[in-house]
Write a structure and sequence with these properties.
globular, alpha/beta, 555 residues, three-stranded antiparallel β-sheet
């Protein structure tokens, strides 16, 4: 589903803030457009946005809407007719309220679920609208309360590492709260004493293996074979330009190999001698580090005294000395790793850190998605044959907050023992089936659409906007031109409404604004051509609408 334009989004937010209670057309016009009492044209503007929202949500069957319901009366009202689990705003409040009624030991799941719904700032698309101010303030206060309650709940069940992750995140947003800072220090002391504690674990008897999430240091897992990521050049220089000393590769050299880079390079050279190189860079292109590139997915086996390490190349070292990887590169590297481990391993536990947590980030994947990729690939290979009796995911203190131990435990619980994995799962429900509008589109709608487009374009010529806003206007005028040339009445209405939403008048608190100006000549020319076509060719014999060039628009 596409994102609605700004004023349509504001209308949707106004209905959401009402919590399922009806809101009159006049109230929407007052709170979103700032007109009171509204004129007929203002009510029509509200109705247009409701129509647009219905087209985005509904599938056009029937006369009524399953999401935005019209309730007739002396003044028509609109109501958001959704369940609480279909609106994050409502669901968040409900989950926190219900969890706070439970004993702390039982509140973890509900509070974790509630906080997982939190993304960025609440109602950020309508920040500054007065109707949203109170709700935003209440949501922020409830978010803080939920974090405090979750930290207490984790502590009550003895999960100090999870409590620390939540409390540290909260303390970052409340630096003036000295008591919170003391709590963080106390929890850090407890967690240091508990290093090695298992945060989540699940056994898979049919595959004769288990998966564990462990708090600690990967290099301290002496009872397991270690997995450490490399780039395709297998660089080892830890001068903070090629490889950072604090990265896992840096620690591999300075902790396990005691800083003996020659010994590490000798082992790498022996392991790679039979691997065909992909290419060899010139020193003028890659000024530091090694020049020979090997295929992604290359696996090497290294020894540091009695400790065995599997090195897997899942990222590319650019000539700019920046390591880059993708979800596909990571998945391929993990597939090769488990195949190698199954063939050459000694059925010891395999310990791996949080891949992509350092400078070699995996584009498009956060900590949770990276862990899920590793686990799914491990289980997929384990269904073919045993890889290892345990996959141990080792997370450092500074990375726990991004992992979410409680959510990871839930993820593990959803993985099936012995079943075939066809791909990532999704819990998203299909959008409810809805109709388009209170009435039906008629032939007269086309004429009305032309009139609305003419009015909107005439208004554009009178607007004064910041330069960045004019770029959006230019794109919207182009979309309107396409709707006139190729679309029908609905497409024209949507394009016109989107353009109207870019008008400079908004009901938000006064504040500083960028310097405003008129439309540039190129855009004014395009608007005037469209106005001519609309007013002189509305009978279907319109000439070609000017189409934007393939270059970027400067108007």
């Amino acid at each position: 589903m596409s994102t609605p334009p700004p004023l349509a989004t504001a209308v949707l937010a106004r209905l959401a803030v009402a919590g399922g209670e009806p809101v009159t057309v006049d109230e929407v016009a007052r709170d979103v457009w700032g007109v009171s009492p509204p004129r007929r044209g203002d009510r029509v503007a509200v109705q247009k946005r409701v129509l647009m929202l219905r087209r985005l949500f509904d599938q056009g069957s029937g006369d009524g809407s399953g999401v935005i319901v019209t309730e007739p009366g002396r003044v028509s009202t609109y109501r958001l007719a959704l369940r609480s689990d279909q609106v994050d705003l409502w669901r968040f409040q409900e989950l926190v309220r219900d969890a706070r009624r439970l004993p702390l030991a039982l509140a973890v799941a509900g509070l974790s679920h509630a906080l997982d719904l939190w993304r960025g700032h609440p109602l950020q698309d309508v920040e500054g609208y007065e109707f949203a101010d109170g709700t935003i303030a209440r949501l922020r206060a409830l978010h803080e309360t939920a974090q405090r309650e979750l930290a207490r709940a984790h502590t009550a069940v003895g999960d100090n590492a999870a409590a620390l992750a939540v409390t540290e995140r909260l303390a970052e947003s409340l630096p003036e709260d000295l008591a919170l800072g003391l709590t963080v220090s106390e929890l850090r002391s407890r967690v240091r004493e508990e290093e090695g504690a298992v945060l989540a674990r699940r056994c898979f008897p049919a595959m004769r293996t288990s998966v564990s999430l462990v708090y600690g240091d990967l290099l301290h897992q002496s009872d397991a074979d270690l997995v450490i990521g490399f780039t395709d050049t297998f660089d080892t220089v830890t001068d903070d330009r090629v490889i950072h000393r604090d990265s896992l590769q840096g620690q591999l050299l300075h902790v396990l190999f005691c800083g003996d880079r020659k010994r590490l390079d000798d082992q790498l050279r022996r392991e790679l001698r039979h691997v065909p190189a992909v290419s060899v860079e010139s020193r003028s292109d890659k000024r530091l580090g090694k020049l020979t590139r090997y295929p992604l997915g290359t696996i090497v086996t290294l020894w540091a005294d009695e400790q065995r390490i599997f090195g897997v190349a899942y990222s590319r070292m650019g000539n700019d000395l920046a390591a880059r990887s993708s979800p596909q590169d990571l998945a391929h590297g993990m597939e090769r790793l488990w195949e190698h481990t199954a063939r050459h391993g000694w059925r010891r536990p395999v310990a791996i850190g949080l891949v992509g947590a350092g400078l070699a980030r995996v584009d498009g994947l956060g900590p949770q998605e990276s862990l899920a990729t590793v686990v799914r690939s491990f289980l997929a290979r384990s269904r073919v044959g045993t890889v290892s009796p345990e996959l141990r995911l080792v997370v450092r203190p500074d990375a726990i907050a991004g992992v979410g131990p409680t959510l990871f435990a839930k993820f593990l619980g959803e993985q099936e023992d012995g079943a075939t994995i066809d791909g990532p799962r999704t819990d998203q429900e299909e959008a409810p089936s809805m109709s388009v509008y209170d009435g039906r589109t008629t032939a007269s709608d086309s004429a009305a659409g032309y009139d609305d487009a003419v009015e909107a374009l005439n208004e554009v010529l009178r607007w004064r906007l910041p330069p960045a806003d004019w770029e959006q206007v230019s794109r919207s005028v182009y979309a309107l031109a396409l709707a006139l040339r190729d679309g029908g009445a609905e497409e024209l209405l949507d394009a016109t409404t989107t353009l109207e939403d870019l008008a400079p008048s908004r009901v938000i608190r006064a504040g500083s604004a960028p310097q405003e100006g008129d439309a540039e000549p190129q855009l004014r020319e395009r608007v005037n051509v469209l106005l001519h076509e609309l007013t002189h060719g509305g009978d279907g014999s319109r000439t070609d609408i000017p189409v934007e060039s393939s270059g970027s628009d400067s108007g």
